[in-house]
Amino acid sequence: MQESIEQYMHTVGQQARQASRVLSSASTQIKNHALSAIYTALENSESAILAANKNDMAKAHNNNLDSALLDRLELTPTRFKGMLHGLKDVIGLTDPIGEITDLAYRPSGIQLGKMRVPLGVVGMIYESRPNVTLEAASLALKSGNAIILRGGSEALESNQAIAVAIQHGLKTAGLPESCVQVINTTDREAVGQLITMSEYVDVIVPRGGKGLIERITNDARIPVIKHLDGNCHVYVEAQADLQKALPIALNAKTHRYGVCNAMETLLVDEKIADEFLPRIAELYAEKQLELRGCANVRRILGDQVKPASEEDWYEEYLGPILAIKIVSGMDEAIDHINKYGSHHTDAIITENFSLARQFLARVDSSSVMINASTRFADGFEYGLGAEIGISTDKIHARGPVGLEGLTSQKWVVFGDGQIRQ
Amino acid sequence: MQESIEQYMHTVGQQARQASRVLSSASTQIKNHALSAIYTALENSESAILAANKNDMAKAHNNNLDSALLDRLELTPTRFKGMLHGLKDVIGLTDPIGEITDLAYRPSGIQLGKMRVPLGVVGMIYESRPNVTLEAASLALKSGNAIILRGGSEALESNQAIAVAIQHGLKTAGLPESCVQVINTTDREAVGQLITMSEYVDVIVPRGGKGLIERITNDARIPVIKHLDGNCHVYVEAQADLQKALPIALNAKTHRYGVCNAMETLLVDEKIADEFLPRIAELYAEKQLELRGCANVRRILGDQVKPASEEDWYEEYLGPILAIKIVSGMDEAIDHINKYGSHHTDAIITENFSLARQFLARVDSSSVMINASTRFADGFEYGLGAEIGISTDKIHARGPVGLEGLTSQKWVVFGDGQIRQ
Fold first, then answer.
1. Fold for domain B2-225+400-414?
2. Which residues from B are below 8 Å from A377, CB to CB?
3. Which residue has the higher pLDDT, A208 or B304?
4. Residue pairs between chains A and B whose CB atoms are closer than 8 Å
5. Quick one: CA torsion of A110, A114, A115, A120, rounded to 10 degrees?
6. How are beta strands B321-327 and B263-269 bridged, if at all?
7. Could you tell me which of A225, A313, A236, A222 has the C-alpha nearest to residue A273?
8. What's the gap in Å between the CA of A153 and the closest CA on chain B?
9. pLDDT number for residue B2
């Protein structure tokens, strides 16, 4: 069995590599034609896909999966429409492939530039949500990449049903069906193969819990575009304009709780704490937030604030809990963020120009903000059109990753017979 | 012993991480000051460094190391001057750090841009040449990165002597000495530690033989900017201008043999082979090249060409040998390059506009050229100022890698109190 999974995955990999050669030079017109054909195929298979999802849901109920997972797994007619809507958006995105930039003459007479090209083959590993199957496939196609999809075992039937429609669309447009392949086994060995077949797969994109992502990163022999935690900070500096600080500190925490760009720790300068803390605490009380603070915060706000432990500074609560710390100034704030943070998104609220510049230079995070809510750190707000994920890595892609994250640049040289002297 | 190497490397890593926090926000002025102080310190320690190198050379002789390695190891007064000259060049390079680009307003009112930042800590693993110690250290410093250097055991004394001067210069400029650390043990376990300490090291740059690089890539738990082979092609298309094709095919192969951007296989369209091959073979004969060709090439050129085996198409000769193949046209040429090549640098010689465009789009190499010699693919010719290496990867850095390869971009957001709706 072990060996047959290995053989199966290598066949999948080989087919993906071959398909990627065709896709990489497919015109925008052909790629959009395929995406439109997939749209039609999906419309026509709505009932089949929803029926497959009902089977997955029934199995998941029988296996006593928790309600959060069941919610993510379910495809309702409304969610199905949302999926199709997302596909329309991808069709509308500008094709990044083939763009040539920085074309300029060198002293030797050659003309040198950079051309945007697909990465080749993407391996995607994800859990429960079947809509990721379409989302990832459409972004990969648009950017000229073949993709191998490995969804969660709980969504197997849903994912296979969506795959059938996708492959039907690819065929209609004359592209190889193996541009998009959905792994048809739930054997874990398939993941082990996928993340080590460096001859067939160019990049791995995992989406799911931290445990999954850490496991994949450890075992992969292929670059991984990954996202671990979002432990984001807002630092209310001594010269903050409270008319900005109050709404931002409220919005960054309470606009949505379960998202990676939500603030998890609020840092307040000691010079402004007496004025700021009671006012923001009042707003948080209305939202019934649980506050955990350092001793100095508790001195000001009293017992409505629980004592924060060392672990709290590392925590990504993803819920209605907030850690608060009073800091002596800029240096302590930055040291705290760089030490305890996850290098995701961190903001300073200040009117001081020089301090703002310093914060920008010294905070080592994928998004650094001045006088704005951390909640802005996402692909849609950044105008990327669609988001593959948010990367907390520094190599290749950082922060919200759009279509560009699935591309690379090669050098192009135009000459009239130049030779090296 | 094993444990003490582990402890030693973790101390080195920790110190590098701390130093990188200081360096990452050091001004251009301070970094250039440090580089100038290193220049002076090196000038003053020339005799000590050359003496250390003499010791390394003596040991290498005793160990019967081969002459190529001895040549790379040796530091003559002329080479020492060359090293200092390279350092001057790095001082003159534009500081990439802090550059903000693409700053534009989003519909929400936030202003979004990208800021160039250092990667953090670079781990460099290399063989024999002691000048790499200075080159890598100066490029890392200029781009705001701390660096951990692990040179070959045969160059240990030379590298340590250079390190002393570097650290003296850092101290003079008020920067932490641990910005540049040279590993003082030749134990292999140190490399094992270096390439897996992901908490302290952000990127690994290996320089050396293919074996070394493959080993490091396999074992690393940190992204590697790597360079494997340079199996480069020139494809003389049917509509090539022979006044361009002849000098390019000569230059790409014979300008220098031991370099990764030299042509190793010449592809010739069957429609032009009878005319082109005898003329280029005459030029190659003057250079006493050994030619290995397919059966069709031998039909035209006869016994002056040895038969090429399947392995020859994969070979990076790095010497006066050339493989030649006749192809039926564009498709066969591109398939050959994508299959047997190393995705380094490949050129087409043609006057046909549409075929040139097709070649550009479909050849999957880090540099793709039209009517120019593959020998142009290097950091100096591309105007990068200095070259960390040439990457055959697609992720992060591709082709010649300059200072920018040691940097990343973070998102920056400027607001006046914007919150997410």
1. Aldehyde Dehydrogenase; Chain A, domain 1 (3.40.605)
2. 411, 413
3. B304
4. 215
5. 120
6. parallel
7. A236
8. 28
9. 53
Residue B88 has pLDDT above 90, yes or no: yes
Burial of A211 from C-beta contacts in 10 A (0-12 / 13-18 / 19+): exposed
Contact A244, A297 (CB under 8 A): no
Cβ pair B411:A218 closer than 8 A: no
Q: Calculate what percentage of chain A has a pLDDT beyond 90.
A: 80
Test A418 with B371 for CB contact under 8 angstroms: yes
Name every chain B residue with its beta carbon within 8 A of the beta carbon of A420: 251, 255, 373, 375-376, 381
Nearest to B248 among A255, A400, A419 (CB): A419
Q: Give chain B's count of helices (H) and strands (E).
A: 15, 16
For residue B381, list chain A residues with Cβ-Cβ distance below 8 A: 106, 108, 110, 420
Q: What is the mean pLDDT of residues B105-122?
A: 95
What digits encode the pLDDT tens for the residues B368-416?
999 999 999 988 899 887 777 778 778 888 888 888 889 999 999 999 9
Report CB contact under 8 Å: A25, B362: yes
The three state secondary structure string of A136-156 is: HHHHHHHCCCEEEEECCHHHH
Q: How many CA atoms lie within 13 A of A37 on its CB side?
A: 19
Q: What is the mean pLDDT of chain A?
A: 93
- Which residues of A fall within a CB distance of 8 Å from B221? 218
Q: Which residues of B touch A361 (CB under 8 A)?
A: 24-25, 98
Q: How confident is the model at residue A238 (pLDDT cuts 50, 70, 90)?
A: very high
Q: Determine the distance in angstroms separating the CA of B418 from the nearest CA of chain A, rounded to an integer.
A: 5
Is-contact A289 A320, C-beta < 8 A? yes
- The continuous run of DSSP H or E covering A413 comes out as strand A407-418
Q: Cβ–Cβ contacts within 10 Å for residue B240, how many? A: 25
Q: Report domain extents, chain A.
A: 2-225+400-414, 232-376
Of A25, A364, A367, Cβ closest to residue B24: A364
pLDDT at residue number A391: 82
Architecture of domain A232-376: 3-Layer(aba) Sandwich (3.40)
Domain B2-225+400-414 identical in fold to domain B232-376: no
Q: Which residues contact A243 (CB under 8 A, 6 or more apart)?
A: B417
Q: What is the pLDDT of residues A174-217, one digit of tens each?
A: 999 999 999 988 888 999 999 999 899 999 999 887 788 888 98
Question: CA-to-CA distance for B347 and B296, rounded, in angstroms?
Answer: 22
The answer, yes or no, to whether residue B147 has pLDDT greater than 80, is yes
CA atoms of A109 and A255, how far apart (whole Å): 56
